[in-house]
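4.2 Preliminary Data

To establish feasibility before requesting continued support, the project team ran the inverse folding procedure on a target of 150 residues. The structure was first converted into the token representation described in Section 3, and no sequence information of any kind was made available to the design step. The complete token record follows.
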């Protein structure tokens, strides 16, 4: 009888110890979400391609060559301005694989885009066009919080 009581007490104390230890373990940090707001220069003198550059083609090249093959970027989304006064903003939303990889993700994107061109002249033309239509950008680092039930 003593052996059974000893075994039961040992099992209960082991269970309680493991439960208290599990509650003290912090959940893993969520992946950071980088929200980059690109401000693009508006059309001048009726130029619907933004000074001779097709905005959509340039953005899709950036996504296809720099974002999609980048294994550090876990999720990506683009939001275009839909309604309101300020129609010169485009949001790039990246989920990065860990806070320590944020700079690596940006460097890798640029490296992939640069490697996609056969010549330095083509690469320089792409970045000149990019800088021509986007006058500036703002970066914000966000965290995925509580998910509402839908």
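Position-by-position output of the design step:
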């Amino acid at each position: 009888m003593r052996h059974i009581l000893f075994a039961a007490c040992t099992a209960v104390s082991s269970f309680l110890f493991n439960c208290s230890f599990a509650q003290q373990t912090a959940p893993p940090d969520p992946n950071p979400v980088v929200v980059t707001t690109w401000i693009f220069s508006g059309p001048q003198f009726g130029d619907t391609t933004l000074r001779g550059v097709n905005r959509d083609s340039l953005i899709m090249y950036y996504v296809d060559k720099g974002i999609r093959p980048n294994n550090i970027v876990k999720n990506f989304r683009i939001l275009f301005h839909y309604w309101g006064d300020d129609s010169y903003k485009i949001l790039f939303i990246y989920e990065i694989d860990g806070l320590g990889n944020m700079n690596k993700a940006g460097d890798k994107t640029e490296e992939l885009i640069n490697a996609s061109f056969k010549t330095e002249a083509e690469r320089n033309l792409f970045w000149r066009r990019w800088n021509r239509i986007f006058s500036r950008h703002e970066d914000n680092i966000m965290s995925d919080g509580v998910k509402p039930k839908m």
